[in-house]
Design a protein that fits this description.
The complex is a heterodimer of chains A (about 140) and B (about 400).
Chain A lengths: L3 H4 L3 E2 L6 H8 L4 E5 L5 E2 L14 E5 L3 E10 L13 E8 L6 E6 L12 E10 L2 E8 L3
Antiparallel strand pairs in A: 2-3, 2-4, 5-6, 5-8, 6-7, 8-9
Chain B lengths: L6 E8 L10 H16 L8 E8 L12 H7 L7 E3 L7 H12 L5 E9 L4 H6 L8 E2 L14 H17 L3 H16 L12 H6 L2 E3 L2 E2 L9 E9 H4 L7 E10 L15 H11 L10 E4 L4 H10 L8 H6 L17 H4 L5 H12 L13 E8 L2 E8 L2
Parallel strand pairs in B: 2-3, 2-4, 10-11
Antiparallel strand pairs in B: 1-8, 1-9, 4-8, 6-7, 9-12, 11-12
Helix pairs in contact in B: 9-10
Chain lengths: ~140, ~400
Amino acid sequence: MTSKAAIYPPLPLPNEMTQFFWDGCQARKLMILRCKGCGRYIHYPRPVCNGCLSTDLAPAEVSGEATLYGYTVAMQAFHPYFADKLPYTLALVELVEQAGLRLTTNIVDVPEAELTTGMPVRLVWREVAPDLVLPMFTKAAS
Amino acid sequence: MSDNNRVAAVGVGYSTTGRRTGLTSRQLAVQAAMAAMTDAGMTPQDIDGATMLWAVAGAAPPGLDVVDSMDIAYMLGIGPLNFWNSGAGPAYIGPAVQAVAAIKAGLCHTVLSMRVIRQRLTTAEMLAQDTDANPEYADDDRQFVMPFGSVAPLQAIAAMPAQRHMDLYGTTEEHFGRHVVAQREWASHNPDALFRTPLTLDDYFASRYISKPVRLLDCDYPVDSASAIIYTTEERARNFAKKPIFVESTAFSSVKYATFENLDDIYENSPVHCAKTLWSRTDLKPKDVDCVQLYDGFTIIVFQWLEALGFCGRGEVGPFVAEGHTAMGGSLPLNTDGGACNVGRRHGANFCIESIRQLRGGESGVRQVPDAKVALWANAVGPFSGAMLMTSE
């Protein structure tokens, strides 16, 4: 089978609300939608700030500093691309900019025994397909 | 609470249940509905409402037949319907609460409520085929999770919350295993269970990891199944064959959009809100509950509900389970039919049916909880969930 699914991970299909995020990744800048009214970051992107109900929103670059909120070491592939990537670490990281502001990502170059909830992590970029650079995270100097 | 407008469950039924039954959705639905009408001693003319939720447990093979509530009612000579619904709500608690609400609102008097699930493909089949489970692209919110390999529900629903609970509270894999072993013990006494061979902790630790710390034995078992429960008014309930079991309180909760990765709290989410609402609608307390039936799509979901409902303190569920409270002979009999891990995934309906059978009394053999008067069942987790408290008096 020569399906794309075996060669690449599921590829993001940007829409009007999310194009900025993937354009940012291509430029290796982590951009998150932010409310210009109250300063709240909004991820996943939505057309309104659910804090102050402002619709005046714009992407803003964030630092890439984060802590590890949750993780799992995947031992079985449920998509062909990941069959030869096992084990891989799927994670949720909380960005320092705002409590509860999290990305789903992978932790790379950290041995499993060193993974702990709450550990500081930092952004690294990984190209996984032509024109697809993903924000991943690794251990930060503490 | 005093209520002159109570709703009662009067009939329960299952279809043939298992892998590759060869039965269509319509056949499964008809079997379960007829079993429930027979159980209640009821005819189709007694029913004027139908709620159901149909689903494929996993990726859909092409050509699967779908069934909805209007279709099942008409096939069985039920109707015209005064109320029906074929969607919305998490798993079986959806059609259950809709049935109760419609009766209480006076929109109809007697509702057949169902959950029908068709067989998923095996993982090997999914990997080998171009199916919805094998996408080349990720759209909508999925674009933020699937490229990173969050592609199986259990990773975000179960594995990450379980790992976080371990790191925050010292919960151990042995705690998870104690639950799995205790639940299998219940199943070993249930002739309807698909898995009845008792397990040891060693068996649990020999079970392979799917996504750490979740092992195969932490996962429920996808099957073809249909389940049916019939609800009616308290006034009518006395006319049927079985002892009516009353709905004491119900609650729904939705705390965010349909995400598991992006919840505000990956462990303490909708069940916490749902439990508060449920208890606010009754004078009963956790100590009054004789048995509890909590959805076990994955072990950690049971742990989430036990804490959310207040049966143990925050972060204390691991030791609570390991001490044997939820096992046969324990203070809080849990998943007394063996749970979805052992009776097969009926998406919550088995927990409603088991609650009703325990409260009727005499239908559960050695699994019978002595003098059971109050049962609680709960369904789903994460962004959405629901629960129901039932009583025998």
